[in-house]
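Hello K.,

You asked for the raw outputs rather than the summary table, so here they are, unedited. I folded two proteins back to back in the same session to keep the settings identical. This is the first:
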Amino acid sequence: MSPSDDLDIIASSAADFGAVEIARTRFELKVRLPVPLADGRSHAYRLVIAVFGGVATAREEKPLLLPEFCPERHINRDGSFCLFWRAVDDIVIDNVSAARIWWETLIRFLQQQVRAARLRQWPDANGRAHGEKAAMHQLHAERAAGRLGAPFPEDLADGRLTVEVSNSSAHGPAVRLLRNGRRLYSVWRRDRRVVNQRRPCLCPKGARLRPVVLKSCGDHGAAAADLALELQLMAEQERRFWKGFDGAQCCGTMDGCPLAKTETSVHAERAG
């Protein structure tokens, strides 16, 4: 299928979502897209849409309503929107149904942008970690939490689970899993196992009058180790992701953005 054929599929559904075609070339489609908001208002975006190899991308024609670049708001360096994670949630534009899903995804993304600008943080708790490697570790952590069962998936989604690394043991580094800042358990990173496997399991069976220990509760020992270690690896890859943007200018629209911290430290070093 040629690029113009892919673009035809996207264009064929544009009017169904209120998009008005402004201009078109073989490779790009320029549209005006009104995005309805919950309070009845709408924001109109002028967008450039391109499709290559079945992959559709969108960006604002000029950065008027959105930042030119903001990882926290899922806007790439070239201004294109990070609408989904292709490794898991890919949308291949090979039919009208896929095109409609893409348009729906784009509109939801732009609605979230309005909320992000107001809240100064990304509103979707299901957002993915930054960077391909970090997102993959996040996915593995989510699967491990699912194997352990409630409340771990909810705690993970709500950001209540964090990790820290201790290097003070003959067994090598240990990764501590914390819930709301309080330690739940520790994992030997080298051996990929929970330090105390005779402790009560983390699932409801561990709270019985005669608790089932972690070692004997199916694969919960492995799941607990995977959860802690994948979260630690995700954090490492997130730091590497942001390190790659050293010197990039922060747009100033999101609270706690690592780019703002990097910018501050660079200015401090220059002043010193």
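The second followed immediately with the same parameters:
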Amino acid sequence: MNKVHALNDTRATLLETGLGLFAEQGYNGTGIKEIVDAAGVPKGSFYNYFKSKEDFGAEVISFYADGFADKWSGYFAEGPEQPLAALRYTYERIIGYHEQCAVKAGCLLGNFAAEMSESSELCRLTLQEVVAGWRKRFAGYLRKAQADGSVRTDLSAEQLTDFFWNAWEGAMLRMKIERSTAPVRACVNLMFDHFFLP
């Protein structure tokens, strides 16, 4: 294995480990020593890849978003062709994933937004960029669904997207509180069976 490949592997291992620990324990509840110990990396090596814990947190947000975008692409590729049905299929798959998890960790973006938006401008801006990318993609599907007549047109695709995001993130928080996917399933059913329809 060449040196560059080894460096990339170590960096990816730290990000994957940090993602898992942040999802379970939160940013403030997880220390660098805990991350490097879990990753099997010397603590001093951490700073070869990240300037600070805050920088690492922002990188974890982007890492999570990239992984989630890949999952989205996979779900859309295997799901129905009709845009609204494709969106619903994607969120049904996300709910299915959470049903298999013993710990209902919720959405890392929502968790970080609640925990870090006031204390880290870097993390806040990274979250803003990631959410803007998700919003653009989701609204694009809704716009196609408006064009084929399956989604209401009295509100813009962006307005519908924003309302869904707000409802979804609130439902994710309730999922954590209740340790049940019932709130997110109710959210998806209400949105796709009623709110989005003409």
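Residues 52-195 form a domain with the Tetracycline Repressor; domain 2 fold (CATH 1.10.357.10).

Happy to rerun anything if the numbers look odd on your end.

Regards,
P.
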